[in-house]
Amino acid sequence: MLKDRLCYIDEYCQTFISRVVREEKDANGEWYVILENTAFYPTGGGQPHDTGTLNGIPVLNVEDVDGEIRHTVAEKLDSTIAEGVLDWGRRFDHMQQHAGQHILTAAFVELYDFQTVSFHLGNELCSIDLDVEKVTEEQLASVEKRANEIILKNIPIEKKWVTEAELEQYSLRKELKFTDEIRLVMIPDFDYNGCGGTHPSSTGQVISIKILATEKQKKKTRVHFACGGRVLQQLHRKNAILGKASQQLSAAEEGINDAITKLLGTNRSLEKSLEEAHETLLSYEVKDLLITKERNIVKALFKGRTIQQLQKLARLLVAGDEEVIALLVAENGDQLQFVAARGARSEVSMKQITKSVLPAINGKGGGNEGFVQGGGERTIPGEELLIIMEESSLNS
User: Fold this and answer.
1) Angle at CA 292, nearest 5°, toward 286 and 294?
2) 315 FRET partner, CA 20 to 30 A, in 68, 145, 218, 395?
3) Nearest Cα to 327, choosing from 344, 346, 337, 314?
4) Could you say which DSSP state residue 166 is in?
5) What Å distances lie between residue 60 and 23, 44, 49, 52, CA to CA?
């Protein structure tokens, strides 16, 4: 029975000895061990499995398969007795996060009747999904304050196995989906809930709860948070980032926002100046290319230019000379891209150029009679592609 498992009898059990029932390989060829009893918690209820060792051999995974707890191990134990040692840091962290989730969820219900529909305990952060589309900053602050008040009161967290008939004695936060082996986790006068996870013996051991961010999930709101030791981890990490930013900006921490605002303003000014300089260079490039035209055709091969840059250059060329046809090709790694455009006084069909070019490069493209673009594989040199484009324009 569930309640006979060591992880439920004593959630603070860190070491134990048990008889090995059997040891086998799973479908993936990994060894797993079934013990007579175990303090290892298997993945379930939003809480990840415990890790640790059995006879010094690392336990990689713990899962409940058809009522049996499988301990996946790094290698065969080859023993009839197993000494289990839990990674206590991981287990207690999970206990803090899971109890913190109960407290946070209950606070959302108590203050605003926001129901939690799912819970995820990640490696760095935890999250709950609330069955509401929007939560305000004021509501988040109120809930966080209430949750930490419950922690500060250091209320005993009670766990109790009950029957279905006994459930009527308790005001549960949500209806249970199961009726066999019911385990209640209760914070008296605050939260009553069915749960099979591990939790500390009092709310004070959660230490603290910090809501870190929210995001929309369809018609729900995901709330990211951290509890206990993870709050300090987040504080250390953010403090390190803030300190580095302060150094790089040569500004005191309290002046970082002003420094960033100033830096962004400078960057926008530089970007504008760079764009103006680029436009100037482009205008000179257009003039130089127009000088090279033969039979009203300007052609050019580039390396590393984007299709957008080719398009802009082609438009400037045909705007500068209404009789010209612009044929531009760019080699980008193992790809070829092209643009063909005609001036307002030209009647040459650019679509005909596309029909000639695309089969040669296994490409795709499109456009209209006056302007086309496309790209494909570099099956031929760029110079050869330009020749095909030129011959097509002359034969149109």
Assistant:
1) 125
2) 395
3) 314
4) G
5) 15, 16, 9, 8
